[in-house]
Amino acid sequence: MEIGVQATGDYEHLLRVAAITEASSATALAFADHYLFGSEPAHYTSPVHDSLVQAAALGRDTSRVELVMLVSPITFRHPAVYAKAALSIDDLSDGRFVLGLGTGWHEDEHTYHGIEYPDATTRFEWLDEALAYVRTYFDTPQEGFTGRHYRFTGFDSHPRARRHGRRLLTGGSGGVKTPTLAGTYCDEFNVYHHTASGVAARLAVMREAAVRAGRDPDDILISTCLPVLGGDTEDEVVEAVRSVAASRALDPDLTLERWRAAPGIHVGTWEQHRDFIGGLAELGIERTYLQLAAGADWHLERALAELT
Q: pTM for this structure?
């Protein structure tokens, strides 16, 4: 199992996270592209930066790990902007950037910024065309692309990626649409939720779509995200939660209670986390991005030492 890290914050924080990640045997550093963090207005207090710009800067300030956009909403930017930015970051990083695109889910971040946020059906139409557009722009730009929503004229002066292989990602929790898009266009499929039957069903859909598209499904990396806070003892676990909560200006006691109760957040011992990640590998997942763990430098160092 490969281990990656997903982090957000100002650039100084990301530089520290990147240094810790590159000093470990972790394989990737991922970003979440949002214009608001949190699920309700009371949580919209942290400054939020543009993750695509930060990824470009880290393309120069890192040397080894993959830099992964996990993921950016197609509502934020035209696919031409994504394609051109991805190729530019690929150049800046010597071929280490993976562009992740999704439909977006955070309605408030669109409303607050005056960004159009159509219904889910329309957003999936946009995403389908955007992935096809970017895939063509990456691989055969001379052919051009014409869709209902997006198009570009084919010519051969676009910059080319420094590496072949993994450059485009999508992910989500849906059972049909997202796995189909992943198999048709993408090099990495990020799977949400971890039940054995759910993962198996989505991977089957992805593989069938890849075969229909004339692609080898074994070439598609299967990844997931895992919010993890840990320690050797209960006291160390509590200390980790309190430290990360404080870094987010959250009440430590309320956060501890809330995160322990959240089914998707894993608060426990390192041994428990290793067992869970081993179970993910048995389901066919090949990379796990650690979330929350980067909220405190000392905790990230420990998490990577224990889990990589």
A: 0.94
